[in-house]
Amino acid sequence: MVEKLKEVFGKTGAVIREYPMVLVMALIAAASAIFYNSNDYSRQDSFVYLKSGLVASLGISLMFALKMLSQRIGKELLLQVSGILFLIIFYFLLPPGEKQFTEVYAFLLLPTFLLSHLLVSFIAFIGKNRELNFWQYNKNLFINLFLTVVFTGILTAGIMLAILAVDHLFDFNFNSRYYSYTFSFLTIFGSCFIFLLFNEKGLFYLEKNGDYPVILKFFTQYVLVPLLLIYVVILYFYSAKILINWELPRGWVSYLILAYSVVGILAILLVHPLKEDSTKSWVRIFSKIFYYALAPLIVLLFIAIFTRILEYGYTEPRYFVLLLAIWLTAVVFYFIFIRKQTIKFVPVSLFAFGLFSLTFPYLNTFSVAKRSQKSELMKTLTENNLLENGKINFNKKVSDSLVIELSDKFEFLARRNEEEFLLPLLQKKDQAQLVKTTDDGNFNEVRNITRDQFKNVTYNLSDKKINPVSQNITLIAKDFNADLTGYHYLFKAYNYKDNFFEFDHNIVELKMPVSQFKSELFLVFNNQKVNLVPDLQKLFANFPNDGEIKVNQLFITKKIGNYEFKIMFDTLILIKSAGKEPQFLINSESVLILIKGN
């Protein structure tokens, strides 16, 4: 027993000595997650913990990559200082406050995390002709990662169950946050430590030759390859359908092709050493056929993505899909036409494309997306004659679909700090409102502000949603601004989403959607469910005539217990079809809930 303990502590000490900076990053990330969970999310310093956690998490893979490189070339101190400087710069690239931390930063964070992991895969092999060593190194990392997930999952579940048992058996009444603290520490720092234990001394241990794992061959031959065959058959049949019907491909087919490509390349990389084994001819055949089979699908991928780009312009996701399509084309050409191949081309080329997408001036994803959406906005305004003296004429008659398109583009550009471009399009009073809204970080409200400025909107109740022979009453609120006088809380609920809110130790839920198929609207307050459809019926009772009717405000009030709830809408539609019950459609982008105590 003593010898086992010495061995465990010996390995622990070796990990600490070999990977101090990796462990420091993991510790900062775990501590940041714990402090963030223990803090009031509305406080400014809670966002500091979130930023610190994200940057430190990035630092785990970055510092591990630099450690692998230092074991190859030396200069460990210089590499570590360079890594720390990069992380400091990256920290300040993130916004200072949570209000400015929009989904735009996901298009910076996710690719950067991917790049840091790609760096781990090849940084120690740049300029080195060690093909088999490169494969062994990444194979061992892959296996160690899988084992880390299994060990960490079992360890975390076991310790949390132990805490739960002690809590219930001895009546300690632990704070529920202790469980989240334990989970955060074990899944971040614990998993990192376990992973490093599996890697032992690092590079020279990971790249040493070893027997080919039978499980990898089985997994590839009997799981991945059959899945790929299913995917390729589906995609080729879909391609035939497109040619027969002569129609444009659906947008989501892009993701299916990308998934097929990634899984296929992974399968080829997993069985790479077997290509030289004459008894494993299926590997050579599969490797060759895969790239030839992928070529026509890449053409379909380009058609699908350009269909969306030409119609709606570039956004960050469309940019990345296009970039991945170009990268896949390069990979296919490389493995079909280049005789002296190396599998390092896959991660190195993907890293180069990813780095280009984030850093290249003028052509990076953020610049292209903003330029494209600016151009699309001006094109839409010009084609619909909505510009007068360089400003939008909100009094012109427009369709509801056009209003939605314009408001979406306004919100898109506002989230990307393009107020200087948007402000000249508005009147002075509207400019002040836009500036205030963006300064407050209420980017969802930018869409509502833009949409509410249009005074003459025609609503297209098409047969896609509503029976064309039905009679409809549309109520539109002239004023959708909430007067907070006397009210203590304001929440915004969104159609077709789960809407839960907490206040004064109470939980309130607005259950939507209301659709043409089933009219339902419930307010749930502390498990007390109240049907609001009768209140909607009362709203329409005062307006028996069909058509579009503008009212000053559109709301219902409900008293439940010691609280009064005011629920505000901007557009409601009553659909009256012969032989059917009247149905309600909430056409509001969002619904406001005001609460006060009686």
List keywords for this structure.
single chain, 598 residues, alpha+beta, four-stranded mixed sheet
Task: Please tell me about this protein's structure.
The protein has 598 residues and is an alpha+beta fold. A four-stranded mixed β-sheet has the order 11-5-14-15, covered by helices on one side. A four-stranded antiparallel β-sheet has the order 6-16-13-12. Strand 14 and strand 15 form a beta hairpin. The longest helix has 40 residues.
Give the proportion of residues in helices.
55-70%
How do the strands of the widest beta sheet line up side by side?
11-5-14-15
What portion of the residues fall into strands of 2 or more residues? 5-15%
Globular, elongated, flat, extended or rod-shaped: what is the shape? globular
Q: Alpha-carbon distance between the termini?
A: 68 Å
- Mean pLDDT metric: 85
Which regions have little confidence, pLDDT < 50, spanning 5+ residues? 461-470
Count of β-strands:
16
Give a quick account of the main beta sheet: strands, pairing sense, barrel closure: 4 strands, mixed
Number of helices: 19
Please give the radius of gyration in angstroms: 29 Å
Helix/strand-derived category reads alpha+beta
